[in-house]
Known about the structure:
Distance between the termini: 23 Å
Structural class: alpha+beta
Mean pLDDT: 96
Number of strands: 19
Number of helices: 9
Largest sheet: 5 strands, antiparallel
Strand order of the largest sheet: 6-7-13-11-12
Order of helices and strands: HEEHEEEEEHEHEEEEHHEEHEHEEEHE
Radius of gyration: 20 Å
Low-confidence stretches: none
Shape: globular
Amino acid sequence: MLWYESLDETIAKDLPELEVACDVLMQRHTSFRIGGPARRMAFPANAEQVEKLVKLAGECGVQPFILGKGTNLLVADEGLDTLVIKLAENMHEIRRLDEVTLEADAGISMARLAVFAQQLGLSGLEFAHGIPGSLGGGIYMNAGAYGGEMKQVVTEVTALYEGKVRVFSAEDAQFSYRHSVFCDNGAVVLSAKFRLTPDDPASIKARMEDLMGRRKQSQPLEYPSAGSTFKRPTGYYAGPLIEQAGLKGFTVGGAQVSEKHAGFVINIGEATCADVCELIRQVQEKVQNESGVLLEPEVKIIR
C-alpha cells in the first residue's frame, strides 16, 4: 500500500473531522504562484490535530511539510510527494493574557497580529504589519523589517518537538538573523507569546502606515514573489550588489530581477521553479564575479 493510501485510511479512522485534500497545486498556496501538486494537504483546526496528524504521518512512513502562508517558498514544478500540513487555513486565534501580553496561533498572519495589537494600544509589532507571512514562519525565520524583528517581542514559543508539545523560552529559541533553533531541530511552531508596550493606538497606527508606505514605494508588491530573495551579506546589502552587477530587469523565462528593487525576484508571468532557480544561480555567479560576495538565498527552495 502506498503511503498516502495508508494515511487516508488512518485519518478516516482516527481524525475523521480533519479536512484533507488530494493533489493540491502548491502555486495556489504560495505567494510566488509557483509549484506543482502536493500529494496530500491537510488543514488542522488546532494544536491537538497537528500533534495527532504528525504522529499518524510518521506511522505511515512520510515526513510532513509544514506550511504557513507560503510567502517565503519556492516549490518544485513537479510538486511534492508528501503530506503538506497548512496551519494558516484555520489556526489563527489571538488571546490577550494580560495588559501587555498576547498569545497567538502559528497560522495567523503577521499583518493581522500587528493590527490586533495596535487596536489594543500595544506597541512592538509595527514592523510586522507589512510582512505577508504567518506567525509560524515569522518565528521560524525570526522575521524582521525596518529595524524590528521577532526576537525583540517574543517571550515563549510552543512547538511540537520530537512528538511532544514543548514550551521554548526566548533564549531556547536562539533567535538570530533570519534563523531560530526551529530551523535546525525540526520542531513545528504551534503558537507564541509576546510582551508588548502600551502606547497610543493612533501613534502606533501612524508608524505602521509609514512603514507600509515605505514598503509600497520601494518593493514590487504588484508582482508575485517570495519577498527578499537573498539574505543580507555581512557588510553589504544584496539589492545594491545585484544592481551594481547590471542585473536589474535580468530575466530567465517568466522570472525577473525586479526593476523596482533588485533584491526581489518576481514572477512576471508563468514563471517556473526552474526559471527562478536558474536566475538565482546566474545572479549569484555574476555578483560574485563582480564583487567577490556570494549571495545566500533567503527564499526556501522546496523539492
